[in-house]
Amino acid sequence: MWTLIGEVGALGLAVAFTSPVSVVTVIVLLSMPSGRRRGIAFLVGWLLAIAVIGAIMVFVLHGQDFSSRSSTPSRAASALEIVLGSLLLAWAVVSYRRRDPSSGEGSTPKWLLRIQDTHWLIGIAVGALMLSYGLSLAAASEILKANVSRLDAGVALAVFTVASMLTVAVPIVAVVAAPERSEERLATWKAWLLGNSRTVGLVLLMIVAAALIVRGASDLIG
Prior knowledge:
This protein has helices at residues 2-17, 20-30, 35-61, 72-98, 110-114, 122-130, 133-146, 150-164, 166-177, 179-221.
């Protein structure tokens, strides 16, 4: 069980630190009218997306034989990890090659600025869409292959959830805890993230994606 906790926790941290765009999105939402509501709605959408994955994992797929490497469900889960890892790796490599290191600070995506004129509840949909589904499904695959009880599966999913939302929750906590100082602080974070973190995030994502491919191939061949 502790091995599983470590694996899904690591995948959760991978979600948190390879998604700088998600953090920028939260910061921009917080700077809009009804910013706190928008930020919290984003977090709710993020959690709902993980909850849907968890519900399918616990109530639909749980009980199938994912523990044996020779079983059809287990081989399917391992193949899924290879596919997800390959897609993530390809996307990260293409994005890395298309980046412009000389451009300096990036700009806020135009689609995000258009949200300002919408209802704050739209933040729920934004949060659900911004979740890294590739890594989230990989975490679900690891939990299924561990063949643990529903309770342990729920605990593992909770660990993944908490780890995945660390970076997106920090700006919200900053605004709630110290609203008088949050505007300047968030502007500083946003500038740094737009200017520096994309390359780091893509490199980390390549490493995680390669690890998923190796892990899935090892389970499939073994």
